[in-house]
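Consider the tokenized backbone below.
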């Protein structure tokens, strides 16, 4: 899909979003929904470098867990009803510490919920979000890359590699961990290198998952398993036809097997060895690290690796510019919070814009310092807390120093003995604001 606009003077828009993956696409759809209720509609542009196929870096073979709070927000934005059929509900989460006695569970039922969250495959989500964007009022530039940026007093001028130019009042950087907008504007990030690499793959076990997700802290790093739909699980990796997919799915169900999305954090050399190990060696190592709680691991799909760093902008704003999602902060996938936090950036920005439009009866400068700083203030506490908690989790649970080991085991056990204590943990896991 390409919408190309060639003209001598830059095309004027109110908001330009650079990056159309999870954060940028949901923001664009949220803005289009808001715009539909206004007497003067917003002029929204979205610039995305890749078409939504299985080579798209933001909509790759990864599966992610979308927390209960995020499902609520996506429903409010009218997006979840379009994605719902892709979701596998997580009804229970089991957290354990390998080789130690600490373990705990989070369960949906006692909290009065059907599910703690939903697992979705990003490839599938990407094509639906892009379909929705083409039907919306958003001007989509795709495939198109921002190749130059010029800050002006009343906005930014963006030059795209298709020759078009845009002038926007407010620039939103949703262009991921290596944000080019951040580089053009000379902004930097704070970095924490965890000296870990995550291996991500779809794995099959010989027992039904029954909607359990698992988080296991091992000596080398955390390991997470998310339950997946059998049928969708095959599609990204095996590229089978839909008939074959259905047959594969039916076979799995008949055999009582199930599919999980695995994220396994390891020291980089070990991750490299296991990524390249033959299938049986990999499955044996996984079985050893995880134990037998989900039965036997019987198959593994394509293995992909991601270096794990935490990087964040202390102040995710600039003159007439805000940063959302991975462009503002890139988290360790340990707690499955990256998109959940990114979505809270998106919702925070939408709330600020909606209030500003309501207060000024539509005559608002969307890139004003007021709006940019209101966004910063709205996001400060949640970002700080989430970043601190994740760094604590990664460091605390990768450490063999005995007081910490004892502390974390007692901590996990206490949580399972004292259900009321679980509520704040559940609140974080489920992304309730
Ligand atoms: C292994 C793993 C597991 C994870 N599990 C979870 C989970 O369970 N739950 C969860 O909430 N999160 C999870 N995450 C995090 C989540 O996947 C990310 O936070 C989220 O997908 C980031 O989306 P984004 O839109 O902010 O950035 P990105 O996905 O990085 O998208 C940036 C987009 O910008 C585009 N772009 C870049 N430069 C330009 C340019 N110059 N011009 C135009 N476009 C450009 C790119 O093409 C890309 O589409 C996980 C991450 C990993 C690695």
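A designed sequence for it:
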């Amino acid at each position: 899909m390409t919408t190309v606009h060639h003209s001598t003077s830059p095309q004027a828009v109110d908001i330009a979003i650079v990056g159309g993956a999870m954060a940028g696409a949901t923001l664009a759809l949220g803005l289009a929904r808001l715009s539909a209720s206004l007497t003067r509609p917003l002029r929204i542009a979205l610039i995305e470098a890749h078409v939504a196929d299985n080579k798209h870096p933001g909509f790759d073979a990864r599966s992610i867990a979308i927390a209960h709070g995020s499902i609520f927000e996506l429903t409010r934005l009218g997006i979840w009803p379009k994605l719902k059929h892709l979701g596998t509900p997580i009804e229970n989460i089991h957290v354990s510490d390998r080789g130690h006695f600490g373990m705990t569970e989070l369960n949906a039922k006692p909290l009065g919920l059907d599910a703690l969250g939903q697992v979705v495959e990003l490839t599938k989500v990407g094509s639906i979000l892009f379909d929705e964007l083409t039907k919306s009022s958003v001007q989509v530039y795709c495939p198109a890359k921002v190749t130059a940026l010029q800050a002006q007093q009343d906005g930014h001028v963006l030059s795209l590699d298709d020759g078009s130019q845009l002038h926007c009042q407010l620039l939103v950087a949703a262009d991921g961990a290596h944000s080019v907008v951040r580089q053009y504007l000379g902004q930097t990030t704070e970095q924490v290198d965890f000296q870990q690499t995550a291996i991500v793959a779809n794995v099959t076990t010989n027992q039904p998952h029954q909607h359990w997700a698992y988080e296991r802290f091992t000596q080398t790093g955390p390991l997470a398993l998310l339950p997946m739909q059998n049928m969708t699980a095959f599609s990204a990796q095996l590229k089978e036809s839909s008939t074959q997919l259905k047959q594969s799915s039916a076979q799995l169900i008949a055999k009582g097997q199930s599919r999980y999305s695995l994220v396994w954090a390891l020291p980089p050399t070990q991750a490299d060895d296991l990524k390249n190990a033959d299938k049986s060696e990999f499955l044996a190592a996984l079985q050893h690290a995880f134990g037998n709680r989900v039965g036997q691991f019987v198959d593994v799909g394509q293995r992909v690796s991601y270096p794990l760093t935490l990087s964040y902008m202390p102040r995710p704003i600039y003159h007439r510019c805000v940063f959302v999602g991975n462009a503002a902060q890139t988290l360790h996938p340990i707690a499955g919070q990256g998109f959940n936090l990114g979505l809270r950036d998106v919702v925070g920005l939408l709330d600020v814009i909606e209030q500003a439009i309501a207060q000024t009866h539509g005559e608002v400068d969307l890139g004003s310092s007021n709006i940019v700083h209101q966004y910063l203030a709205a996001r400060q506490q949640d970002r700080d807390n989430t970043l601190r908690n994740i760094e604590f989790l990664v460091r605390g649970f990768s450490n063999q120093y005995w007081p910490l080991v004892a502390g974390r085991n007692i901590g996990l056990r206490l949580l399972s003995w004292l259900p009321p204590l679980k509520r704040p943990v559940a609140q974080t896991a489920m992304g309730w604001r």
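Residues 415 and 422 are 6 Å apart (CA to CA).
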